[in-house]
Write a structure and sequence with these properties.
The chain is α/β, with parallel strands linked by helices and 253 residues long. It has 9 helices and 7 strands. It has a 3-stranded antiparallel β-sheet, covered by helices on one side. A two-stranded parallel ribbon has the order 1-2.
Amino acid sequence: MGALHDGHASLVDRSVQENDVTVVSIFLNPTQFNDKSDLERYPRTLEADCALLERHGATLVFAPSVEEVYPEPDTRVFSYPPTDSVMEGAFRPGHFNGVCQIVSKLFDYVDADRAYFGEKDFQQIAVIRRMVADLGFRVQIVPCPVIREESGLARSSRNELLAPAERTLAAHIYRVMQESKALVPAHSVREVHAYVVNTLDAIEGLKVQYYSIVDGETLAEVDSWTAAPHIVGCITVFCGATPIRLIDHIRYI
């Protein structure tokens, strides 16, 4: 959606290594924002974005206008529970429907062999995989590792909205989740959940919206460390005086 950073650049680098042509879409999609103020505050840096992409060897930048993408309202409804109905789906109604609307359009516009997505948006990748299977797209979804700042904070376009002191605060999110890994499996899922939420909420300037420990495939919540082959903790935290909403995740098993 623009405001590109090292995380996005890592996706481009991998695509350039693995493909003859790399197309990068930049489109701030209005249908996935259920909070208009969030859309208005989202950074817009197209000129700098294009310069970054040129440095990293992208072949083509596709940056259409809203009018080109949505000449008329997109009334399509996508539903893939529980993948799209928990966590972000529960707290941001309509968000993943908007994601599916725009990603399906982009897959139609650019008949790609592979599409690269950052794992920071862990739930989004799971939803997009469901949509690809549902609509029969032949594109291969390639998840790429989270790129972090030196402090551990996951790279995000929203980080640009953080003041320096807030950026320091936000680094506690990953630190606390990393600490919680040492509690597994000696402590229960409920105890690990409580540790993460209580520790972060005790830090002035941070407020956990949700922390879900889930099956890494279905995103359904688990109640034991043996409930699924892959278990992931997904978190959203409000940071700062004018709260910036930050997401992250960690793999337990």
